């Protein structure tokens, strides 16, 4: 039973005049127009619709990249963000053969663009917006780091770690090794062995 506080200095209420508990007091609730705005939810970005979080995934042709894609898609959908896909066309080894080298480079770029388009179609089934597709030429690590520095919209880098004999992969080694302090964004590393159900449970 709740406690009831009484003031011993207050006498009994007269029954001659109806008792109005609100007499002489300001309204308990101010008019709607004067109510203060509710406190913002710290877990929701108020400007998220205008500046959605951008999850960057590197498409490198590895088997485990699917885990990174699914993780990024789920996080983007659940936080009203977007996904960006980066692929880097590295220069051919035999650049001194100009014609052959250029032909190889053109072919590699075409393959990279087709790979991006294929992954973009899959991502569109998960999130409403089509992902941003980015193709750059050069060293993969250098181009990745340059892109993150240039594009301030990128909020998170999502990589998948391989489990084979070659280790987690060169990019994972780079961002967890001597180059770790060069990135301005957090990195999410998704084990490539996770199933879709496990990834869904984490996101």
From TrEMBL:
Residues 56-191 form the UspA domain. Transmembrane segments: none annotated. Residues 1-51 are annotated as: Disordered. It holds the Pfam family Usp. Residues 27-39 have a biased composition (Pro residues). This is Nucleotide-binding universal stress protein, UspA family.
């Amino acid at each position: 039973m709740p406690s009831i506080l009484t003031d011993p200095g207050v006498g009994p209420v007269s029954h001659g005049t109806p008792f109005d508990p609100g007499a002489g007091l300001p309204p308990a609730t101010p008019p709607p127009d004067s109510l203060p705005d509710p406190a913002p939810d710290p877990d929701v970005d108020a400007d998220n619709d205008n500046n959605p979080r951008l999850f960057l995934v590197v498409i490198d042709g590895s088997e485990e990249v699917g885990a990174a894609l699914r993780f990024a898609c789920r996080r983007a959908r659940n936080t009203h963000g977007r996904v960006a896909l980066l692929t880097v066309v590295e220069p051919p080894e035999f650049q001194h053969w100009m014609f052959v080298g250029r032909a190889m480079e053109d072919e590699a770029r075409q393959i990279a663009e087709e790979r991006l388009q294929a992954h973009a179609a899959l991502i569109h089934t998960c999130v409403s917006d089509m992902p941003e597709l980015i193709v750059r030429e050069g060293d993969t690590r250098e181009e990745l780091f340059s892109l993150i520095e240039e594009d301030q919209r990128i909020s998170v880098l999502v990589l998948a770690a391989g489990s084979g004999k070659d280790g987690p992969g060169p990019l994972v080694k780079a961002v967890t090794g001597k180059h770790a302090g060069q990135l301005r964004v957090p990195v999410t590393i998704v084990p490539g062995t996770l199933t879709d159900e496990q990834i869904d449970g984490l996101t």
